[in-house]
Fold each of these.
Amino acid sequence: MYVPDDLAERARAAGVNVSALTQAAIVAALEKNATSAWLADIAERPEVPHDRVLAALDAARDEFDQ
């Protein structure tokens, strides 16, 4: 990873842990990509009508109440 000398010096002077900051940024980018892929997969699933969702919730509640 390249950091210009002046930026690296400013980071050192400010006590910034560039390595930890870089690692955190990479992890955040990977997690964002994973979340985006997961959401794209969900978007491709067929829609379920609202009344069917409510009926399934009612059935589950009835099952747990017994």
Note: The radius of gyration is 24 Å.
Amino acid sequence: INGELMCEVEDNDAKYSRKSGIIALQMHPGPPMKIQFRNLRIKMLD
């Protein structure tokens, strides 16, 4: 957020990991809330 890393996940389970596919943004159920996204960027890693 605002240029700061908030989360980093590394999944090494070959059965479920994917090299390509869809990127999704998830909101969990709960009390009413508002979620906004702006200027999302994706950076390819080596």
Note: The CA atoms of residues 22 and 33 lie 24 Å apart.
Amino acid sequence: MINASLIAKLKETTCKYENEMVSLLSKLVSIPSVSGEEAEMQKAVFQLFSSLKGETTKIPMRESLREDPKYASGVNSAFEDRPQTRFFWKGKGGGKSLILCAHTDVVPAGNWKEAFKPKIEGDLLFGRGAVDDKGSIVSIYYALKALQEMNIELEGDVEVHLTNEEEVGMAGALALVREGFKADGVLVAEPTDHQIFDAGRGCLQFMIEIKGKQSHLGKKRYGVSAIEKASKIIESLVQYEDHLIDIGRGYPHFENYKYPGQVNIGKIHGGSFFSIVPDNVVLEGGVGFLPNKELEEIETDLKKIIFENEDEWIKNNTKIYFEGLKNEPYAMPDNHPFTLSLKNTLESLGRKTDVLGMMASCDARYYYNQGNMPSIVYGGINNGQSHAENEHVYLPDILETAVEYACFIINWCKKYN
């Protein structure tokens, strides 16, 4: 375990970069890297990590990825101008290897007109991506910079993956996994407010189209209201959500969640005029589910709600589509050595933290499920403002997280002599 004098030296070295960190984060936040539009951001982080001792390379996202059975994306942007950045720092040998992953894309600004014009108020920096996930990129960079400035050499290899499209299906992480990059552990840097997540729930996006029979209001009973049929389906979906909650309560990693399953209808479109019985309704939504269910099971359950419905009209006049997010859940074994290494590192820094399941999806699922690598999610940044219209980060969190990452790198990869 890292000793107190080395921790003190790391803190001292990292603190020297405080002003640099603010300038760098401001620069990154000013780049509008909405999912599918990460080209400029990738150029910036490639240049940034090229300043470190190690090998920085551009890894293309191949068109063949779109044919991968595990591929899912909420955007359809060209891959060729968005290579992902990989940094590799070779160790002396004998230690365990580590991948640090953070994503370069952000969610859209929405109505926030100043989203990509970073603003500083006291210890807060406002801007889209300041929390999720550009603050994490800054913490990773300065963790490595501090280690290298102190001339610390490691036994194990360290690499950094800076991914695209995390917010819309995590295709970037899948692309890097399919390239064959491996490590003894993967730490996905996300704003978790000092919580360690060693599991993640799944998410399935769906669209349901209900056909009705149009007629005049005066002959309403001669028609079939697609809206009324949709309301029956929604009622069944609410009951299904209750079922997911019931079977999820007490499930390992997710014991602390009161509602460990979700079915949300996020969008409804239907009808054309107040006096016309509507003949078409489209429901769009998503299901959040724990690792006690497979993705295919959720699809089957939703199909049963439609095609085994007691309402014959619904059964024969409804279609369901699964396009967009198809995020599989994942769960690490309890008390895995990789998880305990991070937990012990944080305790050596005076921070006790819980190990929980994450009620969201992130890049970790691909590294664990498809890459067969131990994968955990951690960051010291508070996530309360993630995706918010006034997204802002508490700047001291970035500095503290950089120290935590640096200490964990030493503990996991081992300091050479």
Note: DSSP finds eleven helices and 19 strands in the chain.
